Every structure is written in structure tokens, then in C-alpha cells.
Amino acid sequence: MDSTLPSGTTRRRVELRITRPLLTWFARPTVTINGVGQPAQWGVGTWAVPDGDTEIGVYCYNRAWRFGAAHITVAPADQGYEYRVGVLPVGPGTLRPQPAA
Questions:
Q1: 45, 51, 49: which is closest to 20 by C-alpha?
Q2: Which of 23, 48, 85, 89 could form a disulfide linkage to 93, CB 3.0–4.6 angstroms apart?
Q3: Shortest CA distance to 29 belongs to which of 42, 16, 17?
Q4: Euclidean distance between CA atoms 11 and 71, whole angstroms
Q5: Main-chain phi, psi angles of 51, to 5 degrees
Q6: In Å, how far are 3, 20, 35 from 70, measured between CA atoms?
Q7: How far apart are CA 69 and CA 65, in angstroms?
Q8: Eight-class DSSP state of 22
Q9: Do the Cβ atoms of 80 and 74 come closer than 8 Å?
Q10: Distance, CA of 39 to CA of 17 (rounded, Å)
Q11: The whole model's pTM is what?
């Protein structure tokens, strides 16, 4: 079984903007990094990711169901991403690089 790396071994961070939809149905987002889920909050946050290609996923859940799943592979040079869930709690969400400001 793989063990986690000790603290301080991650050398890069990725900014993730999780956009809250108009109606959330009491849903909360969860971020997965290489398959390991971590609770998240709506808004902008940074996530420590290992060097190399990393798969980041986001989905929303409430007490009844899970919805809006999206994932993307992060290349070493990428920095920021934006996640949006649909208006209704069915179907996939979108996870894409943030537009340049």
C-alpha cells in the first residue's frame, strides 16, 4: 500500500476557484487529488499537489446524492483552474484552466 509523503515535500500549489451555483441544495464541494478526497469550500483556494502530472477532480454532494463530477490532469506548468457545476443537480460539472486576467 502506498503511504503519503511527509509534510513539506510538496513543491507546488495550484489555485482552484470553485464557483457556487445559484441553488446549491445544501451541497458541499469535495476536491480529489490523485483520487484522495479532501473537503473544500466555495470560493478560491490553493491546493498542494505533487510534482509531475496530477489528476485533480471536483464534485458536489449533499446527504442524498453526489453530482457535478469533473476532473482534469494538471501539467507541471499550470497554476489556476475554475470549477463550475450545472444549475440543476444532474450531469457533470466543468473544470478548466482559469482565463488569463
A1: 45
A2: 85
A3: 42
A4: 22
A5: -65, 155
A6: 26, 15, 12
A7: 12
A8: S
A9: no
A10: 14
A11: 0.82
DSSP per-residue letters across 28-92: EEEEEETTEEEE--SEEEEEEE-SS-EEEEEEEE-SS-EEEEEEEEEPTT--EEEEE--SSSSS-
Question: Do 90 and 65 touch, CB atoms closer than 8 A?
Answer: no
Distance, CA of 8 to CA of 20 (rounded, Å): 31
pLDDT tens-digit readout, 38-97: 999 999 999 988 888 899 999 999 888 899 999 999 887 777 999 999 877 788 999 999
